[in-house]
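Exam review. A common question shows you a sequence with its structure tokens and asks you to describe the fold in words. Practice with the pair below. Do the first one on your own.
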Amino acid sequence: MKDAPNILWLEEIRKNDLPSVGGKGASLGEMSSIGLPVPQAFVVTAQAFRRFLVETGLEESLYSILEGLDVDNNNALESAAGKAQDLILSVPIPGHMAGEIRSAYSRMGGDTVVAVRSSATAEDLPDASFAGQQETFLNILGEDDVIEAVQKCWASLYGARAVYYRSKQGFDDRSVNIAVVIQQLIFSEKAGVLFTSHPVTGEPLTIIEGSWGLGEAVVSGSVSPDNYVFDQMKQKVIDTIIASKETEIIPDGKKGTKEVPVSEERKHAQVLSVAEIGRLAALGKLSEDHYGIPQDIEWGIVGDDLYILQSRPITTIKPASSQKKADTSTGSEKILLEGQGASPGIATGRVAIIQSVKDSGSVKEGDILVAKMTNPDMVPAMRRVKGIITDEGGMTCHAAIVSRELGTPAVVGTKKATSTLKDGQIVTIDGDRGIVYEGEVRKAQDETPAVVQGGSAPIVTATLVKVNVSLPEAAQRAAATGADGVGLLRIEHLILGLNRTPQWFIANNKEEEFISELYDGIRIILDAFPGKPVWVRTLDAPTDEFRNMEGGEDEPIEHNPMLGWRGIRRDLGAPEQFRLQIEAFKRLWKAGYENLGLMFPLVNHPREFIQAKELLRGWGVSVDSVTLGIMVEVPSSAIMIDEFIQAGIKFASFGTNDLVQYTLAVDRNNEHVASMYEPTHPAVLRLIDYAIRRCRAAGVECSICGQAGSDPKMVAWLVEHGIRSVSANIDAVQAIRESAARTEQRMVLDMAFSKGGNEGERFF
């Protein structure tokens, strides 16, 4: 890490480079690598910032200012933050470093207008969002202004709100560095934010918010944007709210931006066409599938060109077990305001109106904070209140995101809260329905006797409904779905998270460290599913992912890594790396985790399964007493399923993401052909149907763990065709269980009432 250069270009960056380029930089590099339309950019690395502190002699003076600081003392916080920022800005960037930045900017084109964005090394983590805590400077032109903006971004790491937020999240100031992204500015005609899944429930609904001009207006909440809901299962827009868009943010001359009124003809005009909504939803889905978790994405459109400007994990989705339906009102209360329910729950309290951050000191514990729109400086006050109401904003604005993270009910986009409500007034807000009531609202009591309440009994299905898991941190959330086990545990994230290839651990005599990390990560998930099957997929990492890790220097450069040295072929070609994985599995079996099963990815011939089994036998695994299976991801493995059964597989699981693209020759990450990616193509269905029938005849469990396993419609077809196990994403388990139950019931009724006829094969 210390040897990282001062400058890295986007094409050199992957998600594992977060310590050098921060959350924003790592995400941009990763998105660019999978073909998403990301504007050109380079990053001034975190190591450059650290070298700046050391070379200028500022390091110890800086941290002494912050040492022992009581961040809850607002005056002390503001004073310390001001001193720290002044210190960063008090000395020029060393000449050699400034020269590198100038040279990189010149390479972009000397007249390129850029956005200079802070990218802290602790932002956009799966369990904490630091976004918005550091500064961004838009519409920057010229070397001198770029240098100035970079230094201001560095200084913003020590702004009051950033120091406060880090302290409350348990991060030490010395442990957090900052990189700076210099990216071509897209002069968006329309822009906004989208969530690839519902930001509270995790439902497969893409929420898109957009307005005119630059996306800063939507992110900051200075405008109430249009809101579109795209159902991923139905592949169509199911809800549209056209807002009154009063202002937009546009570039201001050669430096900075300005907020201007929206022209009358565009105020109430729909920002996005149905086609644009569909394109955005499709690109969002690509990002979510790639990262394996729902994403919060910033986008911009110029003419017919669509750009992805940022993607970060959604940190506010609640486990199903913690999502409680809000109590409803009695219906007789006086409604004062209506807006958009941005964070669920009901809260009653005293109104505290703040016009600026200077007023936030008057906000007391238990108040209802009311503002035109919140900003990061208001976070300390937002932590104290029971509810939040804003004039502007939508589901993706600052107030909405922070409220969901804090678990505080919020209503945004009311248009007139600051003018209608009075300081000290008692109100009740309903964050589910977006309503503000006068006074304290008595919640309606459910008078239905418990014995007749519908939906209280768990749904029981003959089809096993399992869940897909990638990270140990998600184990409890996955188990809370009531899933019948884990149908796919990907270990790539455990390995990639080490930022070193298995080969590095071998070369540096640290094999035990690798084995222990893998053992501990898998064990956490096994412990969450006692007595239930947990199928672990052995390593399936393409060469381009390993190449950017320590130890990946000798990885081959492949034109199409998805068709290259990955899956079982990598393990068989590098048995010393395979052995490290198997050693972790051996220890888990020895520890009593008999529910652990292994499945080998990307097999295309039974000899690969036989060879893998023999390697396990040679390493001391009793292969006849453990559960070994395969992923059916290549057409050849479906066609040759009988031979795989004869070779001794105990289960087979469809990986439909790969099976579809290999059957149809469609790269699902290529936006030019992504529309041709068709999971229900007749050829794909015939391969799946054939493999299911052959497995059933042989008594071998047949399952599915690809994306199609999270589609209720597809699962209904699979159940009809005899599948006995499905594995879905965490947010889809409930819907999949309901789909399986309905299908099973229909099949039983059809059988009971039929006269022996056969409806024949059908889909939908």
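Now try the second one, then compare your answer with the model answer below.
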Amino acid sequence: MTQTSAPPVRTDLPRSDRSWHLFFGLLLAVATIVFTLWSLDYIGDGASRVILLVAIAFGLFMAFNIGGNDVANSFGTSVGAGTLSLKQALVVAAVFEVSGAVLAGGEVTDTVRSGIVDLEAISLEPMDFAFIMMSALLGAAVWLLVATRMGWPVSTTHSIIGGIVGAALTLGLSTGAGGWDMVQWGGIGQIAVSWVLSPVLGGAVAWVLFGAIKRHILVYNEEADQKLREIKQERIAHRTRHRQAFERLDEIQQISYTNAMAQDAVTATRPDFDPEELESDYYRELRAIDEKAENLDAHRALQTWVPLLAAGGSIVISSMLLFKGLKNLHLNIDSAGNFLIMGMVGAAVWMAVFIFAKTLRNQNLSRSTYLLFSWMQVFTASAFAFSHGSNDIANAVGPFAAVFDVLHTGAINGEAPVPAALMLVSGVGLVAGLWFIGRRVITTVGTGLTSMHPASGFAAELSAAGVVMAASVLGLPVSSTHILIGAVLGVGIVNRAANWSLMRPIALAWVITLPAAAAIGAVSVLVLRWLF
């Protein structure tokens, strides 16, 4: 392949899409106005209204671009596989992303979540701290917008870290309050390691998982489907041969043979009939053909392996929700309780998928495979969306809430409260961003890097979830965005259809994410201090 950028995306909108544009535009405008009115009352009379308005603009701009890049990246496999349409993905994102943000997003957030820049080591005025956070939001958001327009899925966490590093360093050096020692360069080194470690881990796990799925399920089904087609052709040939033989019989022979076939038709419907009771060659041969189909057991892989795969996947996804998605709710469930919940979820999913697979026994085999993996992929996409809303939206909310806290209290605090209104408006901005600008990243992830099927999309999503969880437990420096891209490429390697030419600019974008956001953040903090 010679493709070096995402495939072209339609810019002409059908009438129905124009109405969706209008709806989300109005929703974002109304949410912004209502939130602005609420925030004017929240911060009180002592803070600058102009700075507040600028902070709101930067914060929502960041949330908008997270939706266009990070959320689009998460749903790219589902849309590319045909499991969800863009509008269905939007609905799922709206429900689960916003629910995750509002229900499990946490009541407080660290004001400097990354720990990359040691702002406590220098003497900062509260407003200078606010300017750093605002500049970080703008630097990250502008870079995300550029990457999204190019169709490059990049890390929002690395973007916001770059913005903070650039703004903090620039302010420290320009005022003499701090220098290069403000930056924890070991943390920057870990980010560099994640550029390689994340996609390699995601790709390796997806290669193993999808390789097993393809070998034990998809290839088995293809071979079974081919044998079923051969049996179908054998039935057609059998019917044609006997019809021609019947036409060569005289009238008396035809009457006698018809009576024998009529009696065999009744005999064959009895559940306990013996094939030796059949009198006509037609039904004896047809019975032999039917026995071939029964002995083939075409749906065996779907009934054996898919329920086990779904159960294992549900355990991984439920662990992600318990240990990451719901961690801010402080449910106070001990480790034994968490493992019991995961076990119950796995058993329930196994039973449900096994029953569902049995109900599809009389359906077309390829259609049955598509339906089973589509349902499982919708489940993983929904869980991903909830976990993403509860955790990764903090990339927008953390600095946003920090600025609000400075304006509200006039001081720098280690933790800042996160009002529900701020979470809700950020969620609206995130969903609006997915709709307005997310198509290019969805195209890259869903079809650009490799072609997707519900089975391969499910494998990529589940592999990414498993690696994210394992990395969290082991403390490895990884990026969920890079892991998912690596998983998609792992699927492409199994199918020998990975688009490496498109991966080259994406990898370059990962490398320049931090310095690009840092440069924009550096300029922004100087402009903000000059203006205010």
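Model answer, second protein: The chain has a mean pLDDT of 85. Residues 227-295 form one domain. Full marks require stating both points clearly.
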